[in-house]
Design a protein that fits this description.
Layout (H helix, E strand, L loop, with lengths): L7 H20 L5 H15 L8 H15 L4 H10 L3 H11 L10 H16 L4 E6 L6 H13 L5 E8 L2 H9 L1 E3 L8 H7 E3 L5 E4 L1 H4 L2 E5 L13 E6 L8 H14 E9 L12 E5 L2 E4 L2
Parallel strand pairs: 1-2, 1-7, 2-6, 7-8
Antiparallel strand pairs: 3-5, 4-5, 8-10, 9-10
Helix pairs in contact: 1-3, 2-4, 3-5, 6-7
Length: 295
């Protein structure tokens, strides 16, 4: 059977338009271009996320959902509450609504194979202290995958700490709960699943065990707000699938901070679709999407 080829971006935009039209029926109003531009500029100022043209439908749909939650029917009133009143709590809700959080356990499995080899090599050389940062941790799948990898590859006496940060309080709450439905953990190897997760009574949910949770510290962090409060040095930093939302200036500042925080010959993992060409001063590529800090 021959499958037709569809433009994914067009499908997403179409979905956004459908959601937006549903919202317009609810409120009888539209998000005009001036307000859209102000929101776009505000999001960039607060988060470094660049909402390019073509994402209008996505913005409308997500803002519409937040407005319904607040019982607000006027875009002007919402804009006033967020921007003009400088409502910090609502700013966080807006960034939560705008942020895209796509993740899964052991996403980009080759990164975790490489991380495992690094930890084994370092442990064999006598290293017992490991510090790793998951900079855009979303709902926790990435840092928990990192923790499983490091714990299973290091010595039982190792001192392991993993910092997991995200700009979205919504996904951080999910990560902190350590609760995942059965379909979400299918990518976890059985051995690791049995060792680090437990089934919750007769439900279809699984809970991360304390042995894993105890090595991870979850915190909210805006990657565009540099310098960061951490001092380092870090052995490994995961900064995957987040720089694609930033402009060149924000990327440079972020990479400068990552370079500062990494130990000499520490490793940076980025998304497979991301490139540091023209930005990777102080880094040398080791393999696609993996860089080493040069002294």
């Amino acid at each position: 059977m021959e499958w037709k080829s569809y433009n994914v971006k067009k499908l997403l935009n179409l979905l956004g338009e459908i959601l937006n039209k549903t919202y317009e029926i609810d409120t009888g109003t539209r998000l005009d271009q001036k307000i859209l531009d102000r929101i776009r500029n505000f999001v960039y100022e607060k988060s470094g996320i660049k909402l390019d043209s073509g994402k209008e439908s996505l913005i409308r749909a997500r803002i519409g959902k937040r407005m319904r939650a607040l019982g607000i029917t006027s875009h002007e009133d919402y804009l006033k509450q967020v921007i003009e009143d400088d409502n910090e709590e609502e700013v966080i809700h807006l960034l939560d609504a705008i942020s895209t959080n796509v993740t899964s356990f052991f996403r980009g499995i080759d990164h975790f194979h490489f991380l495992k080899s690094l930890i084994k090599e370092w442990a064999a050389s006598g290293q017992i202290r490991f510090r790793i940062w998951s900079s855009a941790c979303s709902s926790g799948e990435e840092p928990y995958s990192i923790a499983m990898t490091v714990l299973s590859a290091s010595n039982s006496s190792s001192d392991i700490k993993i910092l997991a940060t995200d700009i979205s309080t919504r996904v951080l709450e999910k990560a902190l709960s350590g609760m995942y439905e059965s379909e979400k953990i299918e990518q976890i190897p059985n051995e690791l699943r049995d060792r680090y997760l437990e089934k919750v009574n007769s439900s279809s949910s699984y809970r991360i065990k304390p042995i894993l949770r105890n090595v991870i510290l979850f915190r909210r962090l805006n990657l565009s707000d540099t310098p960061f409060p951490m001092q380092g040095p870090m052995d490994v930093i995961f900064c995957r699938n987040v720089m694609i939302y930033f402009d060149q200036n924000t990327r440079r500042k972020l990479l400068s901070e990552i370079h500062r925080l990494l130990k000499p010959h520490g490793y940076l993992f980025v998304g497979h679709a991301e490139s540091l060409i023209g930005l990777a001063n102080g880094f040398r590529i080791v393999k696609p999407s993996v860089y080493i800090k040069e002294t």
